[in-house]
Design brief:
2 domains; two-stranded antiparallel sheet; 507 residues; mainly alpha; 6% strand
Length: 507
């Protein structure tokens, strides 16, 4: 008897149910796992919240939308709210790709495209690291959908939605400039695109983009050098590799899961499998314009990003390439032909479920096991709550006031700021030009806490910090234990307290 997996049966009979089940299951996993097991947010989230807390129109990391939304989500529901926001962005991205896929390859093949996206790593493990890239992904996907509606289906009212969406995309990440440039080139290169420009709607919609961007553009005119210096600083993210090679490696690694699923389902590398009768999922033929559209916007954004990384020797907003890859799954399905043959369907189903569940399981297992077997200090295991409570409580008891400012180490200070009850503001002592909302004089007059990593060999504050605050008096370093300490040493934090001017002389 021929085996047909439940996934294939549901895909044939209830494709929309499959889509929503997949999207919401993945979202639930990557919202709950970090909320339950991470003691501090991953990646650059602490810096994002330190900037978002100020609600500025932009920063050295780029446009403000992700920072604003991140701060709002954190105020509403803490770290869990931030993880939910990140997964809402991923689900909206999947929905836009699914909707575009339904128009191009039909509903069943569109679901296959979304199923393949589970194998693209940037939409799973790193998605909890909410930032501009995750924020930009749904608006990138929606822009591709709205352009197809406007040009591919000649529904000209969508030009206005496209214009609004591109404005919001640029408020999320400057990487949206790549998409805008490619859309312009594609429109001019294709006869259907040139015909679409003869209508008034494309031209009437352009001002909407600039209206959305206007406040940020005014800010950018004054802060261009700040943004440029922030982009220049991202060269360190690539480590020993050149930024271009690093980006190529990341793009390849993030597709390993997708390549695994494609290899298993295609019957490769065992030719005898091709003599079997696998399940078929068919569709109507894809028109040439749609095929060119999907291929271009699946491949060209990554190619342009790599070229820019090689040419500029900087990563900038390309350090997390999430929006560049939203059409990877759909491009594979378009290339697969009008009849997708699913070889090894039992193994493919198991591999897909494994990709969905194994990644969060490995994340939890790593937190529990790595401290016992390797000298690895997971950043998401730092005891942010304990550190913040100690410093905030100590400052409150000594001065009678809530902690207003924190500064010092670029990792520890933002962590304390986001977990402290008073949500102190962060002064970037490591790069004062990146925090123009506060100065060293503000800390001297209003008080605050300075923190730095203290080791057995060096417990004294860094020279740069002593130069900025020569009046500081270091306290005895404080040790903190992780939830799973293992063989790792205790976390030792050096610190000093700056009393507010009106509190000087108090015990």
């Amino acid at each position: 008897m021929h085996y047909v997996s439940l996934i294939v049966e549901f895909l044939r009979g209830r494709p929309k149910v499959v889509f929503w089940t997949v999207a919401l299951t993945q979202a639930a996993l990557w919202a709950l796992i970090p909320a339950l097991f991470y003691s501090s947010p991953p990646g650059n989230v602490p810096i994002l919240l330190a900037i978002g807390h100020e609600f500025v129109l932009g920063s050295y990391l780029g446009p403000p939308l992700a920072f604003w939304f991140g701060e709002i989500a954190f105020r509403l529901a803490g770290a869990f709210g931030l993880y939910v926001l990140a997964q809402a962005c991923i689900v909206l991205t999947y929905w836009a790709v699914f909707t575009l896929g339904r128009a191009v390859v039909g509903t069943r093949h569109a679901v296959l495209a979304v199923l393949l996206m589970v194998g693209v790593t940037v939409f799973t493990v790193p998605s909890a690291d909410f930032g501009p890239a995750v924020m930009a992904a749904p608006f990138w996907a929606l822009a591709l959908l709205y352009y197809w509606r406007a040009v591919g289906e000649d529904r000209r009212g969508y030009w206005f939605l496209l214009a609004l969406d591109l404005g919001v995309l640029l408020l999320a990440s400057y990487v949206g400039l790549i998409l805008i440039a490619l859309l312009v080139l594609f429109t001019l290169a294709m006869p259907r695109g040139r015909r679409a420009l003869l209508a008034p709607e494309p031209w009437l919609s352009i001002p909407l983009t600039f209206i959305v961007l206007f406040p940020h553009l005014v800010w950018l005119r004054r802060a261009y050098e700040l943004v440029a210096s922030g982009i220049n600083d991202t060269v360190a993210a690539a480590g020993a590799l050149s930024p271009g090679l690093w980006l190529v490696g990341i793009l390849l690694l993030t597709h390993l899961g997708l390549l695994l699923l494609v290899g298993l389902a295609s019957g490769w590398p065992r030719p005898r499998l091709r003599r079997e009768r696998p399940p078929e999922i068919d569709r109507n033929p894809v028109e040439p314009f749609a095929r060119a559209y999907v291929y271009l916007f699946a491949l060209a954004p990554a190619a342009v990003a790599v070229a820019l990384a090689f040419a500029g020797r900087r990563l900038g907003p390309l350090a997390m390439p999430t929006p560049l890859l939203v059409l990877s799954g759909l491009a594979v399905i378009v290339a697969a032909g009008d009849q997708v043959l699913l070889y090894r369907e039992r193994l493919v189903s198991s591999a897909w479920v494994g990709l969905l569940l194994a990644q969060p399981a490995l994340a939890v297992l790593g937190l529990a096991v790595l401290p016992w077997v390797a000298p690895v200090d997971p950043k998401v295991a730092l005891p942010a709550g304990k550190e913040a409570l100690f410093f905030a409580d100590t400052y409150q008891r000594r001065t009678g006031k809530p902690l207003p400012f924190v500064s010092g180490d670029p990792r520890i200070a933002p962590l304390i700021a986001l977990a402290a009850p008073s949500r102190p503001r962060v002064f970037f002592a490591w790069a004062p030009q990146y925090s123009p909302w506060v100065t060293a004089d503000d800390l001297r007059s209003k008080g605050g806490v300075l923190v730095w990593p203290a080791t057995a060999k060096a417990a004294t504050p860094p020279e740069s910090l002593k130069k900025q605050f020569p009046e500081m008096v270091p306290e005895v370093p404080r040790s903190f234990a992780r939830a799973v300490q293992g063989l790792l040493p205790l976390i030792r934090v050096g610190w000093a307290m700056l009393r507010p001017e009106q509190s000087v002389g108090q015990p």
